[in-house]
Design a protein that fits this description.
The complex is a heterodimer.
Chain A (H helix, E strand, L loop, with lengths): L15 E4 L5 E2 H15 L6 E5 L3 H13 L3 E4 L5 H8 L4 E4 L7 E2 L2 E4 L19 E6 L9 E5 H19 L4 E4 L6 H14 L3 E2 L10 H4 L4 E5 L1 H10 L9 E6 L6 H11 L4 E6 L3 E6 L9 E2 L4 E4 L5 E6 L6 E2 L5 E11 L5 E6 L3 E4 L2 E4 H9 L4 E9 L6 E8 L1 H24 L10 E4 L13 H9 L6 E8 L2 E7 L19 H16 L5 E9 L8 E9 L6 E8 L6 E9 L2
Chain B lengths: L2 H16 L25 H15 L7 H7 L3 H10 L8
Helix pairs in contact in B: 1-2, 1-4
Classes of the chains: A alpha/beta, B mainly alpha.
Amino acid sequence: MTPLSRLFAAAGGARVVAFGREGERTADELRSDVAALAAHLAPLAGGRVALHCHDAYAFAVGLFALAQVRSVAVLAPSRQPGALLRLAGDVLGFLIDGADAPREIEGRPCGSPLAAPRASFPLAALDREAAWAELFTSGTTGDEKPILKSVRHLEDEVDVLEARFGAALGAGTRVLATASPQHLYGLLFRVLWPLAAGRPFLRTPLLHPEELAPSLDEGPFALASTPVALRRLAERTELASRAAHCRAVFSSGGPLEAEVAQRVAEALGAPPFEVYGSTETGGVAVRQQRSGDEPWQPLPRVEAAVDPEDGRLVVTSPFVSGGERVDAACTRLATGDRAEPAPGGGFRLRGRADRVVKIAEKRLSLPDMESRLRAHPSVAEAALVLAPGAGEPRVGAVLVLTPAGRERHADGGRRALGRELAEHLAADFDRVLLPRVWRVVEALPRDAQGKTSVRALSALVSEAATRPELVSFERRPGGAVVEWRIPRELAHLEGHFPGHPLVAGVVQLHFVMGALAELTDAQPRLASLEALKFHELLGPGAHVRLHLETNAAPEGAQFRFRLVDAAAPGRIFSSGRGRLAP
Amino acid sequence: MGGAEALEAEIKRLIVEALALEDVNPQEIETDAALFVEGLGLDSIDALELAMVLEERYGVTIEDDPEGNARIFASVRSLADFVRSQGGEARGT
C-alpha cells in the first residue's frame, strides 16, 4: 500500500495498473503518461481544469497530472453540453477523453488526457494539504453543490478502505467497477484505492453491467457497483459459477434492496458491502444486509453520533470536507439524514431530516403522512412538500389518483376530494398539519435519477390557479382528449367582468396550448390560427372536455381543437384550427 | 345590499383571501356555518391569522381569551357582530 501522495515519488514498474478493451497499461506507462500531460499542462499550473473521462485510466492520468502541476481537477458531473458550458467560466481548460469530446468549449481549450506529446516532467510527492479535486453533489433538492477534496481527504479515505477491506480483497485482485469516477464513490473505489493498493482496475465502464460476465471468469475480482447495476447483474448474469473468483462486492450510491442483497449473497456466498456516505462526508459506515435491517457500522477512524436534539447523524472523520474542525486531523459535519443508535453499536437510518417539518411547533414526518394518504382508496401515490402559507408554512399534497379517486375527483372536484382526504388524515394528525393545498397530477414529477425533487413539488403547489384543474389526459392516435374543471379561483377570472366571472377566449387558447405542450413534450409556438370561434360563454365550475387533433408536418404541426361541455358535448365553448412554428 | 350584509360578505372575502383558501368561493361560505373543524375546516393557525387581519382592517382588539374567542370565531355572523360591537363597519374594497 502506497500513500496516494507518494504514488509518483518512486519508480513504477512493469505491473499492470489498468486493463480493458483499450489495452493494458503498466505502472511505468502511467508514470510517463502523467509526466507528458503534466509538462503539457504546466502553463495552466495552479488553475482549475475540468476533467471528464469514460476511461478510468485516462481519468487517472488527468487527475495525477493536474496534482503534479498543483491544479484543481473540477470533476464535471456529466458531459452534457449544458453541464460543460456551466463550468466554462470557472476553469482554464477541459480534459475530456473519447471520440465525442469537443475541441473547445466557450474558447477554453479541450483535449484528451492521453493526447499529450511525450515529454519529461519531474514527478514529485504531493502536498497533503493541497486542494486536488472538486466534486459535485447530486442532492434530492436538485442543487449541485461543489465540494473540494484535498489530497489528505482522499489519501486518508483510501487508507481506511484498505484497512477495513484490504484483507478480504487480497493482493493483486482485479477491480471491476461500474460507478463513474466523476463522483466520489467511483473516484475512490474504481481508481484511487486500486492504484494505491496495487490492484489493476477496469478501464471503461460497460454500458450494461451484465457485459461484465466474461471478466468475472478471468480470475479473482472485486466488484464495485451501484444498487441499480447490481440488480441488473443479479437478474441477467449467472453469478453462482463465478463465486470462487469473487473476493468482495460493494454497493453505494443509494439504498440496496434487501432482495438484491440476498440474491448476491446466495450466488456469491456473501451479501455486498453496502457503503453509506456522501460527497461531503466521504465514506461513513458499512453493512451487509442479511435479514434486511442490519445497523450500519462506522468505518475505521469515523465517529458517527446521533444529535439528541434533531435526530440527525453527525459524522466526524479525517475525510469530511467542510464542517467544523475538531482536531488536527478531523472535522465534524451534521448530515441531512436522521438516524437512531442501534442497541449493539452502529446506527440505523431513519430517512431524510428535511422530511420532518415543524408547523406551529408541531412535528410532522412527511413520509408518515404520505403513507397514510396512500392507504386511502382514492390515492395511488402521494408526495408532500412544505408550502408557504398565510402565516405559517403549510403542507401541500401532490397526488396521483386511483381509478376510484379519479371518479371522486370528476364528481366533486378538488375541494371535495381534499376535504375527504383531510378528514381521513385528521384521525392521526393534528389539524394544523393537514394539507392545505391539493394538486392532482397524472404522474409525480421525477428527474433522471428517478427522484422526485422538492423543487419540482414546490413549483406544483405554489403555482397559483392559473391553469384549469386536470381531470384526465388521454393520448389518442393523432391527438388527445383532455378533461378539465375550471376552478372558481382561476386567476384569469379576475378583472374581466366584475360579478360575472368568465374564462376569456385568449385564456381558453392558453389551455389548448398547454395541452399541445403536454402532448408534444415541447414548448409550442403558434404560427397561425384560423376559423377561431367562441360559441358559448365559459364560466367557473364548468367541467370541460378538449378534443385535440394534431399531425406533424415539416413546416410545423397543424392542430384542430374543440372545447365542449363534458356533461353536454353538444355545447361547444370554442373551436378552431392552427399551425405551430416548426 | 344592506350595511349588515355588506360586512358579512366582506368578512367572507377576507377569510378566503387572507387564508389563501383554494377552491372556496366567498359566496359559498354560509353566514351561520361553523368556521372551524367541521365547517370550513379552519384551524388554530388560521384563527391567529384571521385575528390579525381583522384587527388591522377594522381597528378591533381581539383579547387572548380562548373562551371568548371561541364564541367570536364561531361563524361569519359572530365575527361580524363582534366587529360591529367594537364600532367597526364594512370598508369596501
